[in-house]
Design brief:
The protein is mostly helical. 53% of the residues lie in helices and 10% in strands. It contains seven helices and three strands; from the N terminus they run ααααβααββα. Strand 2 (103-108) and strand 3 form a beta hairpin. Helix 5 (76-83) packs across helix 6 (87-99).
């Protein structure tokens, strides 16, 4: 197998140059790598995004977020009715969503009202729903 070695001229690159020169199995294409080498998300941020996405792995939380995305705010009773769950079960999921920063709450008397924390949450859900629709359309 021919070895393709490439010198990547980048002053901020902390990677061992020998790693960038190996090619028996891997190839480093400078024209592809150089423009993005310092732009790949740092591990700490990737872990945080992973934790955020893990919140969205639960179908119940997705349904709660979807219900909240269609209203300015909803109380626990309203959400429970919309997703066909007990207030207790909804409250448990809302605690998780609040801890993740995806929903906010406000108290009025004895009633708690919940809303999406910001437009990013609505966009995440919309993008996910759009993506699965696109996949379904292709099959």
């Amino acid at each position: 197998m021919l070895e393709h070695k490439a010198e990547i001229p980048h002053t901020h690159l902390d990677t061992d140059m020998e790693t960038l020169h190996r090619c028996k199995v891997e190839c480093i294409w400078p024209e592809s790598v150089v423009p993005i080498v310092d732009r790949v998300v740092p591990l700490q941020n990737a872990e945080r995004v992973g934790r955020l996405f893990s919140i969205l792995t639960d179908p119940t939380r997705i349904r709660i977020i979807h219900a909240l995305s269609m209203s300015a705010e909803l109380c626990v009773c309203d959400i429970g009715f919309l997703v066909d769950m007990s207030q207790s079960a909804v409250s448990h999921q809302l605690r998780t969503l609040r801890a993740s920063g995806m929903v906010n709450r406000r108290k009025e008397g004895r009633t708690m009202f919940y809303s999406l924390s910001d437009e990013h949450v609505r966009i995440l859900l919309k993008n996910g729903l759009d993506h699965i629709q696109e996949i379904d359309d292709l099959t």
